[in-house]
Amino acid sequence: MNVIKTDIEGVVIIEPRVFSDARGYFFESYNKEVFDREVARVDFVQDNESCSTRGVMRGLHFQRPPYAQAKLVRCVRGAVVDVAVDLRKGSPTYGRHVAVELTEENHRQFFIPRGFAHGFAVLSDVAVFQYKCDNYYHPEADGGISIVDPSLGIDWRMAIGEAILSDKDRRHPRLEEFDSPFEF
To answer: What mean pLDDT is reported for the chain?
Structure first.
């Protein structure tokens, strides 16, 4: 796999080696030994999958400590723009983000460490999105910041006014109104 470092330490894009022929393709989507050595030592304990239609925006979500989650995400059908926002107090990159397009064609994966908010916008008619998490989901630890906060400067590659958001995601505070539970 090819590990691409981003402008925020610890947030990486992973490109697997894809073997294609007339029958289709094959690639190794996860190998703990290689991941621990090349990306981070993480023990994933839960896999999730969502299906969304064009224009859906999900996020920007996180789990508060002690239930914080690192995530390894990928889009197995369709295309999304995926974003991680640094929420670690004292971090030199606090409030900054990394965005990457994940598609069924590029097979890219995105690793988001603990202390980051995560979200995505669906660019295709349908997107099936998978998450590996290193901690179990706890509803009482659920948190988020506004996915449409203009101060974040995220290019969602769609008209924000036409985005489809859950009621919960509409109520998240903007970054300036947010008191982060994460330390750098």
So the answer is: 97
